[in-house]
Design goal:
With about 220 residues, the chain is α/β, with parallel strands linked by helices. It has helices at about 25-40, 75-80, 100-110, 125-135, 145-150, 150-160, 165-185, 185-195, and strands spanning about 65, 85-90, 115-120, 200-205, 210-215. It binds zinc ion (ZN).
Amino acid sequence: MAVLEREAPTPEPEAPAPAGPTPDQALAELKAGNDAFLRGENNLGYVKVDDLEPLQGGQNPIATIVGCADSRTPPTILFNQGFGRLFSIRVAGNTVDRRGLASIVYAVKHLNCPLVVVMGHTGCGAVAAAEAIVDGVMPLDPSLEEMIVPIIPAVLEARRSDATDMAVRAVELNAQRVADKLRVADASLADALEAGTLKVVAAVKQMHSGEVKFLG
Ligand SMILES: [Zn+2]
């Protein structure tokens, strides 16, 4: 008697789409990307138009970078990340206004971005301008007010510190202050931080070497 074939098992319900990186995994990917860039092993020379094809359905960037508009600080190159990887908001002095905040909330809430990096850089002209205002060596140009004024608290805090390099300290404090403010700027960001699905960190790109140092 033929053995009855067993009925094929009912297929498992389709697994959900693979989850993106955790905040710590995304941070590790950025650090690895910057290391590759510093070693001269970046792969962006191979980025091509075909890379856009799998991204036509949407994007899930691994990090949102709040960076300076400075032409020497492009996040994609410094972190060795191609299309679809970094959601960038760049304003001279890497501060965040209401539109910048809305962009960050969009990335976290709707693109499931697990990491926000506020990245200043040494030799920042916007921070230097804020220092010049604080030191009284330059009048505040009304046209530049929106760029400079948000940086002034970091410069004042640097001046009160015992840092040996006031300019570098102001850059670090500016990045840290912006990160600190972002953590409490919107309920959805605060909720994601609380749930452990988001990290907000500050970093400084070294102008000369291209190294990105993450601040503790
Ligand atoms: Zn700058």
